[in-house]
Input
Amino acid sequence: MDIEFLDDDLRLALDELATRSGLAANEIVSLVEYGVFEPLGAALGEPARWTFSMRSIRVARRAARLRHELELDDPHALAVALELLERIDSLERQVRELRCRMLGE
Output
């Protein structure tokens, strides 16, 4: 597994995000339409001008893995799966925090 340190101040163009994630640019555009990604600093109608935070790489790579491993070719299904996984991650963080609080008392 490669570890990559991401600087939140840096921005990626659409083609860079596609290259780093394994998703095609048109797949990213579809996922933007479903709210998975929020392009920064440009009008939403112009994908060539979109930029993305470096944190988008993690989500895009996860989307590429899901698409490949589960054969999720429908962007809506992929968006739903990503949303559910993000929710699971959030709940697991909350459980860890609560356990730490309980052990600290």
